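Renewal narrative, Specific Aim 1. Our central claim is that a sequence can be written position by position from structural information alone. The example that follows is taken directly from our test logs and has not been curated for this report. It begins with the structure tokens describing the chain, in the order in which they were read.
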């Protein structure tokens, strides 16, 4: 059928009429249209993410990683220096030339800093673990600030490092004072996605707020967990779970699953980046999958957890039961690994090239335990002890207190490497006879026995009568299995912060890490623990970059007082400087270590992670030779990126007695 020929009347609007119509439209009307458009776009983003709550999650989606490996870490330690001139106080190797290495501090390869990254702040919480795992699963570039113990976002030095990274979005999981991160992102036009439980009204910058219920999911096993992650932790260390807190304080009775929320958050970030929007308020959909408090109680009760409230058994949704079982299995089966496991074998700290297996210093029928890269841990703490009266009286206090700490961290990746130096042959093989060790802590202990004949030989070599403390510690450092290696003393108690940093993987490359000293007369482990719980050691946390080239008294940046109580860093830093001085000097050798670290031609990050308690005891020190770290020849060497091990008279190629073998048990 032939279509009828209908003539349409053409509306003729002159250009003058068009201009008149546009002039009459108010700015408010145009702004309203923009607001409606933004609202519809946000709704589209939300509804496009809603389907996540209805999606059935397979076991393959539950691939959580508790700490990322860093195979490029060798690139973070350049082997550069100037030609040493002891009299040149003006020359300094420009650390700014290696400022691109600053992101190594958050395990970011120098070769990838120019690629766009999503920065996750607060990534060791229950949601942070899930979000970083989700980003890895999608092969999205990201970097992370794991905790304020690692990098404080309120410290200006943190931004010296962040400026080196191409950040295209920030996922903010902390809700404290965020002024500096707001300013940083506003200046660089970086969109912030902040996770909140209630929408924030007075914010000095544009952000995207994602409102959610409290989250449940896999957590690090530490005492510092929020509800409901704390319930898993308390159950697994056999503490009683008290649900009255959540009921008395008016908490919600529903929780969302961390992996569900992580998928929702990452999808939201991607869609906002595509839409170019920079602010908005998004609430998780009403139909988002949730678990009730009563369901959680029932499931925990089925696991034989100790609960001090009456549990009313209720039906649990099958999907929630599956998620609970996955969380449970992930937590109890976690291998709290060290990234050092992934390093090439030719980079072993004690490689066969340095070991003469035929030269066994002290013969015994005991099995010698050789270094095995597959047995590596995250952190090694090295302490030298003897069977003298003072140490026999103090070190058991240290062990008993440390044991109370370690009970709070059931799967911590840690070794306590004790260099046992008996004063006579009759003391050999008798460490556990002299020192009462709680049963739990023994699983973390390695003993390396240094016979008195070796001690006497070193005293004779250096023409000294006192104990060659730091040369002995080098023996432990050279044989330590940790990615991060620290030395301590037999009369100091480390703070909670140390164990939190180990458990949450908060230590950082290119960092000199130590504690602040405080004296105490407490001698009972419970008293010492209660003291730590009562004091605010946040005030002792210091984070700053040492300014070797611009500060003539750069050694003041290292908070030198009492640094020998506890200090250390990444094992490649120890390898770079060949450990402590091995000379007749003892006094100031601990300070010299910090400055030797500063010879590495980068901006060295100085981290004081809290306060250690030094047990007061009668002073028994003898007059020991002082190393003058403030002499010009040494100060100039550090500025020129020349460590003491590179200077004639202080070289120590076989440091840590690498050509010898000692008994280990």
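The sequence written for that structure reads:
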């Amino acid at each position: 059928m032939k279509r009828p020929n209908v003539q349409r009347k053409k509306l003729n609007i002159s250009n003058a009429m068009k201009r008149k119509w546009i002039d009459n439209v108010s700015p408010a009307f145009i702004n309203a249209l923009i607001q409606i458009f933004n609202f519809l776009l946000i709704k589209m983003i939300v509804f496009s993410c809603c389907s996540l709550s209805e999606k059935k999650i397979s076991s393959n989606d539950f691939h959580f990683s508790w700490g990322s490996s860093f195979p490029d870490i060798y690139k973070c330690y350049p082997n550069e220096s100037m030609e040493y001139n002891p009299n040149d106080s003006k020359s300094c190797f420009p650390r700014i030339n290696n400022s691109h290495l600053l992101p190594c501090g958050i395990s970011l390869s120098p070769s990838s800093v120019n690629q766009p990254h999503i920065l996750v702040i607060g990534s060791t919480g229950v949601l942070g673990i899930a979000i970083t795992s989700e980003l890895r699963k999608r092969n999205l570039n990201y970097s992370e600030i794991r905790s304020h113990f690692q990098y404080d976002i309120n410290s200006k030095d943190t931004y010296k490092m962040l400026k080196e990274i191409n950040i295209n979005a920030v996922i903010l999981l902390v809700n404290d004072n965020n002024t500096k991160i707001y300013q940083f992102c506003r200046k660089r036009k970086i969109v912030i996605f902040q996770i909140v439980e209630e929408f924030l009204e007075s914010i000095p910058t544009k952000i995207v707020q994602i409102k959610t219920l409290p989250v449940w999911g896999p957590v690090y096993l530490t005492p510092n967990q929020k509800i409901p992650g704390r319930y898993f932790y308390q159950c697994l260390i056999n503490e009683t779970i008290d649900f009255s807190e959540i009921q008395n304080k008016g908490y919600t009775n529903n929780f969302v699953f961390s992996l569900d929320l992580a998928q929702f958050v990452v999808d939201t970030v991607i869609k906002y980046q595509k839409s170019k929007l920079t602010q908005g308020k998004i609430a998780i959909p009403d139909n988002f999958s949730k678990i009730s408090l009563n369901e959680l109680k029932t499931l925990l009760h089925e696991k034989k957890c100790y609960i001090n409230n009456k549990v009313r058994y209720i039906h649990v949704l099958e999907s929630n039961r599956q998620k609970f079982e996955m969380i449970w299995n992930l937590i109890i089966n976690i291998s709290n690994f060290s990234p050092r496991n992934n390093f090439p074998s030719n980079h072993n700290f004690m490689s066969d090239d340095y070991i003469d297996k035929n030269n066994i210093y002290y013969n015994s029928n005991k099995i010698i335990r050789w270094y095995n890269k597959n047995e590596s841990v995250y952190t090694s703490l090295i302490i030298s002890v003897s069977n003298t009266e003072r140490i026999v009286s103090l070190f058991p206090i240290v062990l008993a207190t440390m044991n109370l700490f370690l009970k709070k961290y059931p799967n911590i990746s840690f070794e306590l490497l004790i260099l046992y130096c008996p004063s006579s042959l009759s003391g050999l093989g008798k460490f556990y006879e002299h020192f009462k060790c709680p049963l739990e802590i023994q699983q973390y202990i390695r003993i390396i026995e240094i016979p008195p004949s070796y001690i006497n030989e070193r005293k004779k070599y250096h023409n000294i009568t006192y104990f060659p403390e730091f040369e002995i510690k080098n023996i432990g450092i050279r044989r330590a299995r940790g990615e991060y290696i620290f030395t301590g003393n037999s009369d100091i108690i480390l703070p909670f912060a140390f164990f939190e940093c180990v458990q949450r993987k908060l230590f950082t490359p290119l960092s000199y890490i130590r504690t602040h000293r405080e004296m105490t007369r407490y001698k009972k482990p419970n008293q010492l623990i209660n003291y730590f719980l009562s004091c605010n050691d946040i005030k002792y946390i210091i984070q700053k970059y040492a300014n070797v080239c611009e500060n003539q008294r750069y050694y003041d940046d290292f908070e030198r007082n009492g640094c020998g109580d506890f200090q250390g860093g990444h094992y490649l830093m120890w390898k770079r400087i060949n450990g402590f001085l091995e000379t007749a000097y003892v006094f100031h050798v601990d300070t010299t270590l910090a400055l030797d670290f500063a010879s590495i031609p980068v901006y060295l990050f100085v981290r004081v992670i809290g306060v250690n308690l030094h047990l007061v005891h009668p002073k028994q020190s003898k007059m020991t030779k002082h190393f003058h770290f403030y002499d010009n020849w040494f100060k100039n060497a550090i500025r020129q990126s020349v460590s003491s091990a590179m200077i004639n008279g202080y070289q120590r190629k076989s440091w840590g007695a690498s050509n010898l073998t000692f008994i280990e048990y």
